[in-house]
Amino acid sequence: MERLLLETRDLCKSFKGHPAVSHVSLQVPEGCVYGLLGPNGAGKSTILKMLTGMMRPDSGEILFGGKAWSRENLRDMGALIETPPLYGNLSARENLLVRTKILGLSEERIEEVLFSVDLKDTGRKKARHFSLGMKQRLGIAAALIDSPRLLVLDEPANGLDPYGIQQLREMIRSFAQQGITVILSSHILSEVEQTADYIGILADGVLGFQGGMPKRGRLEETFMKTVGRGRKEAW
User: Fold this and answer.
1) pLDDT tier for residue 230 given thresholds of 50, 70 and 90
2) Where is the ABC transporter domain (predicted)?
């Protein structure tokens, strides 16, 4: 059995009495790309925010490396959730320099990370003038700066053109090859099918399917069955 880097047990979260996440038990093997799938409003972002300490679960457990999650684990986690937290008046390198100063890291790490996200040649260009794809890559660079074991990406392909999506896909696969575990949420099935090793499918806050990637061309069928079944049960 593969070693799990991250696991949740019966994770629950409600807002104003409405369950957004209900008894979700994820199992994320170390060194893989795990695709968290579901339609809009399925609970994907809520789960990722709980995994990264941005929200507290109402009940359930989160385990990191086999031990109960604590805020100390944030040093082993990098995340890009919602809008990349960038300084528009600074260059890519200057943005990462701010991060290294805050975290007490060597500036040598900046060049390594810029190379890994293909932003090493942007020079003094300000981040506010970057394309959406470049901003996404710089946000990922910021998440990587502290050499995390786990990288969490929430809908990273949103708004990207086909070339930007291809670059992102190749980048994510390269991270897994380096031993970084990646969890990414998405509703773009074709991209997850080409990127992820394992998937979890959410429907109305419930994990309806979890396991290895289905055979080529079968992901959409699995997704539609899972989401359709979840909605019928909710009704």
Assistant:
1) low
2) 6-229
Q: Are 188 and 195 in contact (CB under 8 A)?
A: no
Q: Judge whether 163 and 121 are in contact, CB under 8 Å.
A: no
Is there a domain that residue 34 lies in?
Answer: yes
User: Which residue range is the domain that position 25 belongs to?
Assistant: 4-82+149-233
Where are the strands (E) in the chain, listed by range? 4-15, 18-24, 27-29, 33-37, 59-64, 67-68, 77-80, 150-154, 181-186, 198-203, 206-212
Domain contains 96:
no
Does residue 130 sit within a domain? no
Residue 124 within any structural domain of the chain? no
Number of domains in the chain: 1
Check which CATH number belongs to the domain holding 158 and give it: 3.40.50.300
Assess contact for 105 and 98: CB atoms under 8 A. no
What confidence tens digit (pLDDT) does each residue in 183-199 have? 999 888 988 999 999 99
For tokens 């981040």, the residue is 127
Closest CA to 186 of 176, 175, 196: 196
Nearest to 99 by CA among 154, 141, 155, 128: 141
Q: Do 48 and 36 touch, CB atoms closer than 8 A? A: yes
CA 201 – CA 19 distance, rounded (Å): 17
Query: Taken in order 204, 211, 197, 77, is the CA torsion positive or negative?
Result: positive
Beta strands 198-203 and 33-37 are parallel
